[in-house]
Design brief:
This protein has 123 residues and is mostly helical. It has one domain (2-122). 89% of the residues lie in helices and 0% in strands. The protein contains 2 helices and no strands. The protein has helices at residues 2-50, 62-122. Helix 1 runs antiparallel to helix 2.
């Protein structure tokens, strides 16, 4: 029975770890979104200041080019994090199912506990 209790605790730990991972991914996605929005605002301000919005124009602001590149990189990273989050959600669901199985086994063993004791005493 002790092994089952340890198994349940292990599965609970793994589930909590998956939950923390998903929370981290959510926080990173939100942070990347916030940073990309700030960069977008800076790009628009720079374009408004210079009056040039055509990225192919020879006098297009260098800062706006760099900010666009950074924003695009953030969006790409954000997309990759969303894929990781989907995978983490699948892993979370699997860990949750494993925990339920372990809890069911522990409950079954606990119910049998009265039956096991006399056999151990008789042997």
């Amino acid at each position: 029975m002790k092994a089952r209790e340890n198994l349940v605790r292990l599965k609970q730990f793994q589930l909590n770890e998956k939950r923390r991972r998903m929370a981290q991914l959510d926080a990173m996605i939100a942070e990347f979104d916030r940073m990309a929005a700030e960069l977008e605002a800076q790009i628009l301000a720079e374009e408004a200041k210079t009056g040039i919005t055509d990225q192919n124009h020879f006098a297009y602001p260098t800062f706006a080019k760099a900010a666009r590149l950074r924003r695009d990189n953030l969006r790409t990273s954000q997309s990759e994090l969303l894929q990781q989050k989907e995978q983490a959600a699948l892993e979370f669901a699997e860990a949750e199912a494993e925990l339920k199985k372990a809890e069911a086994l522990e409950l079954r063993d606990a119910k049998r506990g009265g039956d096991d004791t006399p056999r151990a005493a008789a042997g």
